[in-house]
Amino acid sequence: MEAKYLTLLPGELHTVVAEIEHRSNSQIIVQPAHAQNVAEQGLASAVIDLNRGAWALMVNYVDDISPYTLTHELLHLKRALLEGVTRLTSRDQTPQTLIEDLITFENTMEHLWIIPEEQKFFPNESASHWNQDLSRNIGMLDSLNHHGQHRNILQLSAISQFAVRSQTHTDELRAWADKTGNANNVDHFLTDIRGAADNKTMLIQAWVRNMGFPSQLCQRARYDVDRGVEATSAL
Ligand SMILES: [Zn+2]
C-alpha cells in the first residue's frame, strides 16, 4: 500500500496490511475510481480478484478516502484473506438479477462483525455513518414492494440491533415490521442470527433461509491466501 494511504490507518492496522501483502505476495492498491465501480454507498469498496493463483487487491474510492473509510475496507480484506471466513457467493447458473441480492446479503452479514471492530478505532465516525445509513434506508422502505420491504426490514433490524445498537432505529423498524405484517418474521430472523453469533456458516444458512432465497442458486466460498486458491461448497 502506498505510504500516503498507509499513514491514514491506525498504527495497529499497519501489521494487517503487511501480513496481507506478504502472504498474498501482492500490494493492496488504493485508488480513485468511477462512482459506478464503487459498490458500497458511493464511498469506497474493497475488491479481491484471484486469477490463476495471482491476487489483485484493491480499495477503490470516489473523490477522497477518509481514515475511517479506509479502515472499514481494510477490515473487509482482513476478514476475507487473513481470517479466511466463509463467504456467500453466486454460482455459475445464478441469474444476474439475483447476484446483486447475494452481494448485498454477504456485505450486510460481514458488517455485523466489521462495525463493532471499526468502532474501536473510529467510534464517532462509525456511529455517524451507520446512523445516517439506517435513516436513509428506513426512509426508502416506503418505495419498495412487499418483498423488498420484508428483506430490508429484516436486514436493517439485524444491523441496528446487533451492530449499530441504535434503539431509535430498532424502534422505527419494529413499527415498520408491525405495519407490513413482518413482526413474526423479524423475531424469528433475529433469534436465528443470535444463535449463529460467531459462526459464519450458520449465519449464511439462516440468512438465505429467512430471505427466501433459493439455496441451489448460491454457495459458500473461502479464500486460502497462502495457497492462492478459493474453495467452494454447497450451503
Ligand atoms: Zn463494508
Which strands sit side by side, in order, in the main sheet? 1-3-2
- Estimate the strand proportion: 15-25%
Helix proportion range? 55-70%
Number of helices: 9
Distance between the termini: 35 Å
State the low-pLDDT regions, or none.
Answer: none
Bound ions, cofactors and other small molecules, one mention each: zinc ion
Radius of gyration: 18 Å
Number of strands: 6
Shape: globular
Largest sheet: 3 strands, mixed
Could you say which structural class the secondary elements and strand pairing correspond to? alpha+beta
**Tally of distinct domains:** 2
Write down the secondary-structure element order. Answer: HHEEEHEHHHHHHEE
Mean pLDDT: 95
Sum up the structure in keywords.
binds zinc ion; 2 domains; alpha+beta; 235 residues; 3-stranded mixed β-sheet; single chain
What does this structure look like?
The chain is α+β, with helices and mostly antiparallel strands and 235 residues long. The chain contains nine helices and six strands. The strands form two sheets. Strands 1-3-2 form a three-stranded mixed sheet. It has a three-stranded antiparallel sheet with strand order 4-5-6. Strand 5 (218-224) and strand 6 form a beta hairpin. It starts with a helix and ends with a strand. The protein binds zinc ion. Zinc ion binds at residues 40, 72, 76, 107, 111, 114.
Topology:
Layout: H1 3-6, H2 14-24, E1 28-32, E2 44-51, E3 54-61, H3 67-82, E4 87-90, H4 96-121, H5 123-139, H6 146-164, H7 167-179, H8 183-195, H9 200-211, E5 218-224, E6 229-233
Parallel strand pairs: 1-3
Antiparallel strand pairs: 2-3, 4-5, 5-6
Helix pairs in contact: 2-3, 3-4, 4-5, 4-6, 5-6, 6-7, 6-8, 7-8, 8-9
Bound molecules: zinc ion (ZN).
